[in-house]
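Researcher: I need the complex structure. Ligand is L-tyrosinamide. Inputs:
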Amino acid sequence: MPLMPLKMTDGENGNGSDASILTKTHSKTQRPPLYKVLLLNDDFTPMEFVVHILERFFGMNHAQAFEIMLTVHKKGLAVVGVFSFEVAETKVAQVMDFARRHQHPLQCTMEKE
Ligand code: TYC
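Model: Output:
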């Protein structure tokens, strides 16, 4: 049984004669897309709880965590890290779950960089 292409569009004859097909000789290095993880301000979540989250899930020291928490408090939101899709998704889930378990309305989201 001869091997046949799964799909052959009009004009293709299967003999490789399509003049529009170009071969890439200089392939650019592809980097995976990155995602910003954002922390949002609210009026109820205690400041020290947010500091704790930044230390626990984002590897910040206390001074860094306090500084970022204050940025969120004053500006409404801040980027707390940039990660691959999978890692960003996990961080958001960890923060949202931890906040929910402690009954705080803290919101954490991600967006493509
Ligand atoms: N605005 C909160 C307060 O005054 C503190 C806070 C900071 C809440 C950062 C959320 O992402 C946040 N208690």
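Model: Summary of the prediction. The two ends are 49 Å apart (CA to CA).
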